[in-house]
Predict the structure of Aspartate/methionine/tyrosine aminotransferase.
Amino acid sequence: MNIQAEELNKTLQEVNPALFDMLSERGKAIFFPKKGILGQSAEAKGTTINATIGAAIEDDNTPMRLKSISKNLNIDASKAFPYAPSFGRPDIRARWSGMIHQKNPALGDSLISLPVVTNALTHGISMAGYMFANAGDEVLVPSLFWGNYNLTFINAYDAKIKPYNLFKDSGLDIEAMSSELMSEGDKKILLLNFPNNPTGYSPTVNEMKEIVASVEKAANAGKKVVVICDDAYFGLVFEDGIETQSPFAWLAKLHENVLAVKVDGPTKEDYVWGFRVGFITYGIKGGTEELYSALENKTAGAVRGNISNASNLSQSLLLEAFDSPTYKEEKKEKFDILKSRYKAVKEVLKDSKYAEYFKALPYNSGYFMCIELKEGIDANTVRQLLIEKYSIGVISLNNLLRLAFSAVAAKDVPTLFEGIYSACKEVANR
């Protein structure tokens, strides 16, 4: 093992041996290379003639660039064309850390890591898998989950997906989740995704307390628990009584046996899907600056070995937005539009006639909601008929249809459900 990895591992073992045991074999072996080319380049920073960096420089020492590209950018060339660090830009890391605390007041003054920048949330989830999932490890997910988890954990890292039942009655089946946490095995990887994709459900305030209590119970029983919080749709909560903070807010300081891993970013929070910027942040009770620095270095090493670094231009544009005096007002405007679409769905589904062919699963947030079709009505057949006859696109998931109300104007919501009703009726009567 490389001596730089050994040094990081020593720090983790000294501060929290349980956390070291949570790492995958990849996670234990990875490090950020500070003693090779990167180290030498860092030492040469500020020299009059710098022939270390693998980038081209104009004669005036600005980044070399094509006018056909730069003419379309109203931003300083130094913020667009050079590489960003594998850790991410220091300024956006510090800013996002502050925003995490602002959005999650339950964190209080708990010390957490600085976020490491990823190529949006999918890459962040992948980096969490790199760091913590060995071949054969089970990743606990709800029975309705984002299908990309299969590619990330099974295909990329040879781990296993272990679903537990998501809903019981009209809320979460937390007992099913807790049972899996307390099952055989000392190491547990739990993935929490709220608002949930595909159902658009977030826990109530009381359900969040029960989730945290279940994780704490497992930790007190000696389980070493990695909780990955996939916060892709963070902040999009449309009902009172629903928890607006991430599980990370409580898990980051819960127990020495619980490592909270927050994967988030501006993709949906700031409506920049193509910017491909995300963050991965760590929190654990008793975590020190040295411990978090070791985790950050390992994560940045994984990022460097995987994609080198995320987009400098995207990070710079986001920082400009965060500094804008109208930023919060603009976000509220878009949130209100999404909430109006959510309310339009709730209003339409008050019509009892729809119960003849389908019912809505619990939903209260995010981009999506799901309807469960009556037995004997094939969801994929309905989906195809909707495209061919009604010019409506939805996603079929076994006997469910997932509807992205985020992409449907409020005025079109009645047409959406009338089309689904008619298609279900036609399929049922064939």
Remarks:
- The CA atoms of residues 119 and 317 lie 15 Å apart.
